[in-house]
Amino acid sequence: MANIKSQKKRIRTAEVARIRNKAIKSELKTLIKHVHAAVEAGDKAAASAAATRANRALDKAVAKGVIHKNQAANRKSGVQHLVNSME
């Protein structure tokens, strides 16, 4: 356990950030799973809508610093590739 006051605060703030980031990452995984499910079902409209929601969430995660912009770009590319492969 830290003795320095500022380090005690950093431990608390880091824990809050960890919990928030974990929730955001979990939501990203869920949204991407929705895209996969729509593609498996063969519903192009639902897959496209789910991809839009996933892309928006990925962009927000980048803005909040939860994931790196290149990782978001890679995931968005994969999601869009799935939707485009339905034709």
Automatic annotation (TrEMBL):
InterPro entries with a match to the protein in the record: Ribosomal_bS20, Ribosomal_bS20_sf
Entry's Gene Ontology molecular function annotations: small ribosomal subunit rRNA binding; structural constituent of ribosome
Gene Ontology cellular-component terms listed: cytosol; small ribosomal subunit
Pfam families xref list: Ribosomal_S20p
GO biological process annotation, one example: translation
Keywords: Ribonucleoprotein, Ribosomal protein, RNA-binding, rRNA-binding
Family: Belongs to the bacterial ribosomal protein bS20 family.
Role, per record: Binds directly to 16S ribosomal RNA.
Protein name stated in the entry: Small ribosomal subunit protein bS20
Source organism (scientific name): Collinsella ihumii
